[in-house]
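hey so i finally got around to running the thing on that chain from the lab meeting. sorry it took forever, my laptop kept dying and i had to restart like 3 times. anyway pasting the input first so we r on the same page abt which one it is
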Amino acid sequence: MQTIGIRELQTNPAIFTRAMANHEFAMITKHSAPIGIAVAFDDAVVSNGLKTSLLIEGYKKGDLSLGQFCKAMDVSKESGMKILSLMGADVIDYDFNDDLALIESL
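ok and heres what got predicted. didnt touch it at all, straight out
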């Protein structure tokens, strides 16, 4: 997420438009205190809703774990994995200990 001061926004609005064109989040600050967050508008926001779109994007960028995503969406792990998969996010539910146990049993 990019942080843009209100004064910087007034003098150089291209910083803001570049962030939106790159589909980045932008935190707007005034005297170093956050006053808002800007989100690029796209079809995903319309079809999925703002909350879901933000959470999916956060997961894709690595800002949220699968557990955090599911908790924020208030869905089970399996449902969360289905949502992410349908939205084109890579989802892997992998337990290394299961593989170790299998190797030891062989």
